[in-house]
Amino acid sequence: MNRALRLIRRRLIGAIPVLLIVIVGTFLLLETAPGDAVDAYIVSTGGDAGLIEALRQRWGLDQSPMTRLATYLWSLSHLDLGHSVTFSRPILDVILERLPNTLLLMGSATALSFGLGSALGIVAGAKPGSFRDRFLSIGSLALYAVPGFWLGLVLTVLFSVQLRWFPISGIETIASGKTGLGRALDIGRHLVLPVAALGFIYLALYLRMMRTGMAEAWRQDFVLAAKARGISLRRIVIRHVARNALLPLVTMLGLQSAQMLGGSVVIETVFSVPGLGRLAQEAVASRDTPLLLGIILVSAVLVIAINLIVDILYAFLDPRVGASEATA
Amino acid sequence: MTPALNIHRLSVTYRRDRQEVEALSGVDLDVGAGEKLAIIGESGSGKSTLALAIAGLLPASAKIAGRIEWPSLGRPPVNGRDIGFVFQDPSASLDPVMAVGEQIAEVARAHRGMNWRQAYALAEELLARVKLPEPAALRKAYPHQLSGGQKQRVAIAAAIAGRPGLLIADEATSALDTIVQRDIVALIRQLVDEDGTSLLFITHDIALASEIANRIAVFRNGQLVEAGATEALVASPQQAYTRLLLQAHLGLEETVR
Amino acid sequence: MTIIHRFLKTPEGLAGALLLAAFVLVALAAPFFFPRDPLSIAGPALLRPFQDWSLPLGTDRLGRDVLAGIFHGARTSLAVSLAAAAASIAVGAIVGTLAGFGGGWTDEVLMRITDAFQTVPGFLLALAFVSVVGPSLGVVVAAIALSAWTGPARIARAEVLSIRERDYVASARVAGMHPLEIAFREVLPNALPPVLALASVIVAQAILVEAALSFLGLGDPNRVTWGGMIAEGRTVLRSAPFLSIVPGIALVLTVLGVYLAGEGAVETAAKRRSLA
After folding, report:
1. In this structure, what CATH number is given to the domain that contains residue B241?
2. How many angstroms separate the CA atoms of C170 and C147, rounded?
3. Structural domain boundaries, residue B10
4. Which residues form the ABC transmembrane type-1 domain (chain C) (predicted)?
5. In a designed cystine with B52, which of A200, B57, C110, C147 is the match (CB 3.0 to 4.6 A)?
C-alpha cells in the first residue's frame, strides 16, 4: 500500500529536525547543570585534582561547547547515550532494560482508557442531552480532575491494604520461580492497579471527545440519509455516527502518548514498577543528569514512533488521507 | 387504482428563535400508484418540508397536523422499504468513510432479508443499473473517489435497494452541473418506469419537472397553488403565479419539452 | 442579563464558581487563620481527624496541623498555577504570533521547536528542568510553563494566519507601521480570545503538574504543597491513610472547580452566539 509508505517517508523526514532540536535542547540542559560528569564520577569513586584533570581531558570536557555538542551528536549517532554513574553501566542498556515494563503499562492503560472511554462515549453520545449523557460527562470531568498518583494511592489503600486483592507494588513476585502463563498472570495481577490509576484519568478524555464527536456526527446529512434508507438505529449509531466520531480520537491517541509517558513517572514511582518513569525518578533522586536526559531522548524517539504508528492506523481508518496527493 | 399516498390537510410548523414559522399549511395532495408527480416552487415554498414530512424525517421540534395515509400499504410506511429518498447534495448524503458498496448493501440487508454476500451481489447489480462503470471494482470505492454525478448515482442505487413503492427525489439534481443533471433525470425516469415506482420529484426548475413528470403541483409560501397534468398546466396555467414561473423560465430556454 | 449572570445560570458555571471561590478564599485567608508557620509542630503526631477541635483534620507524622497545611497549600497551588498559566499563555501567544505573522523561515523554525517541545513528555521536561536548576517556586513555575506553552502557541498561530489577511492589517501596512508593531498591536489582541479559552485547561493542568512535582520531592522545600503532603502521608499509608487522602480531595475539588468553570464559560459563550 503505497499510500501508507508515502506517509511513513514524509513523517520520518519531518522527524529529523524535531529530533535534532530535542538533542540540542537536552545538551543545553546538561550544560546548565551545576557540575559535570567528572564531578559526579569523583563524588561516587573519590579521586584527586590530577585525576579530575585527566578525566576532563579524556572525556573531552575541556573543549569548547560547540566541539562538545559535536562529540555528543557523534556518540548519539553510534547509539551511545553515555555512561550512568549511578548504575555504572551504559545509559542505553539501563533504559532498554526498563523500557518493556513501561511499554506494557502504557499499552494496557491506553487500551483501557481508549476502549472503555470510547465505549462509554458511544453510550453518552447515542442520545445527546439525555440523563446518562449528562451523568457520564460530569462524571468523566470529575475523573479527569483526579491526580493519577493520588488515585494510585487511594486504590492501594482500598484494594491492597484493606481488601488485599492485589499486591502493593512491583511488577512481579520476586524469586517466585514462576514461568510461562503463571508468570504472565502474576505480572497481570501486579499491573491491575497501576494500569487502572494511569488509564482511568485518560478515559475521561476519550469519553468526552467521543461524545462531542458523536454530537457533531448526528447533525451530518449522511446520518439523515441513513435514517431515510431505513437503516436500524443500532447500525446508524455504531457504523455511521461512532465510526466517524472515532477518527479524532485516534489522532488523540498519538498526541496523548507523550502525556501518558510523563504520567507513568509518578504511577511507576507509586507502585514501584521498574520502568522508564521510575528510572527517571531514580535519576532525579541520585542527581544523575546524563541518565535523565538519556531518558528524555529515548522518550522523544518513542513518542515519534508511536505517532508514526498512529498515523498509519489513521490512514487505514480514514480512506481520505493522502488521497489528494495520490492524484497530484 | 388506489393511490399510493393521500395527504390530507397537512400543516407543519417549526419553532425558530422563539417564533412559530409555518412551513406548510393545509396541503391536500394525492400521489397515484406509478405516477410521476413533480413538486415545484421557489426556496421557502415548503416543498422540501413536504418531502421530509412524508418520509417522517422532520426534526423532533417540528409540529405536524393533518394526515398522511398509505391506502395501498394498509400500514405505516417503512423508510427504505416503502420510501426511497434521494437528497440534494450527494457529497453530504454518503458516509465519507464507508465504501459505497456497503452503503447500498446495508439497505438491502435491512429490507430484503439478505445476508452480506447476497447484499453485496445486489449492490453490484444496482451499480450496473445506475450505469456506473466496473461495478465490481467501484463497490470498494469511497465517496471522495467519485464525481458528483457518480455519487448521486450511488445514492439513487441505495434509495432503490429496498425496492420502495415511492421514490422521493428532493432537488436531487440541483447540486450537479447541467449536462449531468439531464443524465440523472433520465436515469430516474428509466428506473421508476421499469419498476412501476411512484415518483415525487421535487425541484425549483419547471423545465426539469415537465421533462419527467406526468403531473405537476406548484407550491408557494407553504401552500399548494395549483396541480394538474403536466401538459395542461404548462399550456394553460390557471394561476398567475404559475404563469410567472413559466414566463421566467421561457426567457431562458425556447421550449420546455 | 449580564454575562456573569448567564454564566452562573449554567449548572457547571455555578458549581465551578463556588468551588473556585472556596479555593481562592482558603488561599487568601491562610495567613489570618493560621498565622504560624504551617511547617512547625502544632500538637501530638498522627492525631486522627475530628478528634481534637483545635486541630480538626488532625496532624501528620511530625505533629504538623493538616488543616493549616491545606490552607497554606492552597496558596502555593493558586500562586503557581496562575503564574504558570499566565507565563505559558504569554509565551505561547508571542511565539504563535511571530510564527503566524512572520511566515516563511521564522514560521518553519518556530513550529519545529514547538513540535520538539510536544514530542518530549511535558512532565519529564519539567522534572529535568527542576532537577537541574534546583527547586524553588519560580523554577517550578518556569518548568510548568516550559511544557504548557505549545498549545497556546499553535492556537495563536492558527488565529493569526486568518487575521493577517484582513483589511485593517493591510491598511496598517499601507500606513507604514513596522511589521512587529502590526503583529503585536493589531493582530495579537484579536487573536487572543481563543487562546484565553484554553486558560481553564492550562490552570488545571498546572495545578496537577505542580502537585506531581512536589509529590516527587521537587516542590519548593520551604513551602507547604498538597503534593508534598500526599507524599508525606504515603510513608504511613497503612496506619494513617487520611494524611494522603485529605490533601488529594482538596486537589480534586480545586481542579474540578477549574474545569467546571471552563465548561460553564464555553456553554455561556455558545448560548450567546446562538442568541446573536
Report:
1. 3.40.50.300
2. 35
3. 1-77+205-257
4. 74-262
5. B57
Instruction: Indicate which of B95, B102, B104 best probes the interface with A, i.e. most A CBs within 10 Å of its own CB.
Output: B95
Give A-chain residues touching C230 at CB under 8 angstroms. 149-150, 153
> What integer pLDDT is reported at residue C196 of this predicted model?
85
A229·B96 Cβ contact <8 A: no
Task: Express each pLDDT in B16-68 by its tens digit.
Answer: 777 888 889 889 998 988 899 999 988 888 889 999 999 999 988 888 998 88
Q: How far is C101 from chain A (nearest CA, A)?
A: 22
- pTM value? 0.83
Residue B129 lies in a domain: no
Q: Which ranges of C10-121 does DSSP label H, i.e. alpha helix?
A: 11-33, 66-102, 104-119
φ/ψ of B9, rounded to 5, equals: 45, 55
Number of domains composing chain B = 1
Query: Do C110 and C99 touch, CB atoms closer than 8 A?
Result: yes
Does A304 sit within 8 Å of C119, measured CB to CB?
A: yes
- Mean per-residue pLDDT over chain B, rounded: 89
CATH architecture of the domain A98-285 equals: Orthogonal Bundle (1.10)
- Nearest CB among B84, B106, B142 relative to A231 is that of B106
The conformation of residue A137, written as its DSSP 8-state character, comes to H
Residue B250 pLDDT > 70, yes or no?
Answer: no
Amino acid at B241: Y
Question: Is B51 a member of any domain?
Answer: yes
A286 to chain C: closest CA residue: C131
Name the neighbours of B, counting chains with at least 3 Cβ pairs within 8 A. A
Query: What's the pLDDT score for residue A36?
Result: 63
CATH number for the region C3-47+57-275 comes to 1.10.3720.10
In chain C, % of residues over pLDDT 70:
98
Could you report the per-residue pLDDT of C152-177, keeping only the tens digit for each?
Answer: 999 999 999 888 888 788 888 888 88
